[in-house]
Amino acid sequence: MDGDGRQIVGFKNSQGQEQRFAVEDFGSYAVIVEYLSHEVINVEIPAEINGKPVAEIGEECFFENFWSENDGERHIETVRFPDTLRVIGPSAFVFCKELREVIIPEGVTEIGRCAFQECRSLRRVVIPGTVKAILEGTFAYCHLGRIEEFTIGEGVQVIEATAFTEGGSYDLVLPASATLIPGDGGVDWGAPNLMPSLAEGHALHQMWPHGAPVKERKTGRTGRISSHLFGGDGCEVYELELGGETRLVFLPCDFLDKEVEFVEPYDICRLNWKCEKLSWEEKRNAYAYRRAWEKLFL
Q1: Which structural domain, as residue segments, surrounds residue 235?
Q2: Burial environment of residue 177 by CB neighbours within 10 A (0 to 12, 13 to 18, 19 or more)
Q3: Does the pLDDT of residue 280 top 70, yes or no?
Q4: How far is the first Cα of the chain from the last one, in angstroms, to the nearest whole number?
Q5: Is 232 a domain residue?
Q6: How far apart are CA 247 and CA 220, in angstroms?
Q7: Is residue 95 part of a domain?
Q8: What is the rounded CA–CA span in Å between residue 165 and residue 173?
């Protein structure tokens, strides 16, 4: 036992390296509350401890791997989860900047808030349908520019606001089972593009239409909204990929642009509380602002 009354246990991984964990006994199952072997960067979490299934990884369990960098130690690169796992606690792997993949086994039902925040080296992520919600901050600030696979299984029911804030620019395929809680949207600033595109009335139809299909009225060229840049008072500036080109457009509530329209039109005002408060005169002024912004900055 350590000074906090936690049991310290050791297990060897498949490479023969000793791994030490601080563990708490919850009667019918065990919880790993802290990882102590920072020098071992390929982690294999045991399925049982003292004959009891390891069902939970505790809050901030691997967080110290960030702070150990100042002592010349390395970040963990891989972690293998046991099939007995049911819960990954809040901020469990926050700042594990060298973690390469997160393959969560079937049976896990809960991933805590900010569990993988700032994990910037991820190449592969698989979330099974047994996980019912992806909560705020779960993959925030990961900046995944080279992600190879990000799979969200059918059965995930909720994607919470800010779950992917500054998560990176890539296409994120959503299961039909998912819905979005009220708020600024499950994909926020710098977040991935939702795929497939979302028609009006879809459960994940959001305030900021990342990935929404658009077309140019004159030429019929098609594209999509690829990024949100900035905005205010319901009037947003977006980056648009259209016919292999990138351009900026302004979105003042009831239309996208005089030259560009949504393939499946919808009223943004129904989704943006700020926008609902704009008068028609304010909307016209918003469009004039967009033209002035183009002349000054493009």
Answers
A1: 209-298
A2: middle
A3: no
A4: 64
A5: yes
A6: 16
A7: no
A8: 16
Q: Choose among 149, 270, 114, 262: nearest CA to 206.
A: 270
Give the strand order in the sheet containing 235-242.
245-252, 235-242, 222-232, 213-216, 260-262
> Is the model's pLDDT at 207 over the cut of 50?
no
Q: Is the pLDDT of residue 297 over 50?
A: no
Distance CA 188, CA 166 (A): 7
Half-sphere exposure of 60 (CA within 13 A, CB side): 4
Q: Which percentage of the chain shows pLDDT scores above 70? A: 64
What does the pLDDT look like over 72-96, one tens digit per residue?
557 889 999 999 999 999 999 998 9
Is pLDDT at 67 greater than 50 in this prediction? no
276: phi then psi, degrees, rounded to nearest 5 = -60, -25
pLDDT above 70: residue 183: no
Residue 235 within a domain = yes
Over range 136-141, report the average pLDDT: 89
Neighbours of 23 (CB within 10 A): 21
Residue type, position 8, single letter: I
Q: The whole model's pTM is what?
A: 0.67
What is the 3-class SS of 177-221, one letter each residue? Answer: CCEECCCCCCCCCCCCEEECCCCCCCCCCCCCCCCCEEEECCCCC
Number of domains comprising the chain: 1
Give domain status of residue 112, yes or no. Answer: no
- Residue 32: strand pairing partners: 23, 57
Quick one: CA torsion of 23, 47, 83, 162, rounded to 10 degrees?
20
The owner of tokens 């100042």 is: 70
